[in-house]
Each structure stands twice: as C-alpha cells, then as structure tokens.
Amino acid sequence: xxxxxxxxxxxxxxxxxxxxxxxxxxxxxxxxxxxxxxxxxxxxxxxxxxxxxxxxxxxxxxxxxxxxxxxxxxxxxxxxxxxxxxxxxxxxxxxxxxxxxxxxxxxxxxxxxxxxxxxxxxxxxxxxxxxxxxxxxxxxxxxxxxxxxxxxxxxxxxxxxxxxxxxxxxxxxxxxxxxxxxxxxxxxxxxxxxxxxxxxxxxxxxxxxxxxxxxxxxxxxxxxxxxxxxxxxxxxxxxx
Length: 240
Prior knowledge:
- One of its GO terms (molecular function) is structural constituent of nuclear pore.
- This protein has helices at residues 5-14, 18-27, 33-50, 60-67, 82-97, 104-115, 122-131, 133-142, 146-161, 185-196, 201-239.
- The N and C termini lie far apart (79 Å).
- By secondary structure, the chain is an all-alpha fold.
- The protein has eleven helices and no strands.
- The longest helix has 39 residues, at 201-239.
C-alpha cells in the first residue's frame, strides 16, 4: 500500500530517527514542526526519568536512537549522560534549521517544553532574546508563568533602555538619535494586570519592580520624544 511522506516522517519520528525524518520532510517540502515537537518531548521525558544517572546506567535503547542520528556532530564526552546528549541534539538542530524557518521552530520547541511543565534551557531563552523577545514574553503569559514573565519583562525593558542592549543583541536603544524601538505593550499590560491581582509576596514585589521600570521607560520615552520634536523644529528653521 502507498505510504504518504507524512506517514513516513511520523514513523521515523516514532523510532527516533530524527535525521532521516528531517531529510524526508525537507525533500517533500513538509514542515519540521512535528519533528522538533517530538524531540523536545523526548528530552523532557528523558530528563524526568533518567536525570541523575550517568552513562553506565542509562537505558541502552535511548543511546541507540541518539547514536543513530549523526548528521550533526555533537561532542559527547564520557561523563555526559543520555539526557545531556538529547538536549545537545535539540540545541544543534535548532541552530541548524531554525533561522531557515523564520525562528518558528524555537517557538514550537518552547511551547512543547512549557506545556510539559519543563523549564526552558538558558540557551533557548538566549536565542529568544536575540531573535524575538516579545514572543517569549507572550509564551510565558500564555502558560500563566507570571514570575518568569515578570523577570523576563524587566530584562527586556532594560535592554530597550540600554543596560542590557548587548544581551538582547539590540541594534538600537531608546534614544533620540537611534532608530525607533518598541515594547510589546499589550503583553506588558496583561502582565501588569495579572501581577496586580497576585497574592504571593514574590509576585507583589515583581509587580512593584515592573511598575517602577515602566515608569522609567515612559519618562525616557517622553524625554526622547521632546528631543526629537526639538530637533525637527530646528531643522525646519534652518531649511526656511
């Protein structure tokens, strides 16, 4: 019987042959989302079941499917566990394919990890900082992760104001001589409202910090706007 490319990809994913699944999907122009979704899920399940165990006690079947994927060279010293290698493979796949797909795949991976109750690895958070920080803030809010959202929002605003500019790979900050920069106001309003209704001490403290940070941002924005208007008036006077 005829087997569709989608079915082939699904079967390859099921047995852990992610290299071949990606090759097949790309050959037939299929999206890679399901492949990254499945690999992210495996990483979480491996972490939950095998964390703390080293190589000699890891399940041999997990090493089998990991070792069967060799398209991306992943250095795996003896002291690394099967869990480490799975996460390294996910990281390497994203580094190789995510930019080709408009960074959609990192969103797919983050959504899967959060849906499984997993923390995002630092390297994935950093990738969002450099490519689409507003998307990560939106994801945190979608999963009602208010503490993570608030901490990230504080860092994000700092980046727009300047102190964390390099961390977020921002080409410009809020300044009259720089190109315009923006913040995801709707997400920030949503976050402020959620924090305002929070009862835990830590969230109340984060709410105060976020309010103060936004006030600093709006003061700076007002000053920058005034400077730009002044410069525009001076330019008009010179030209006339």
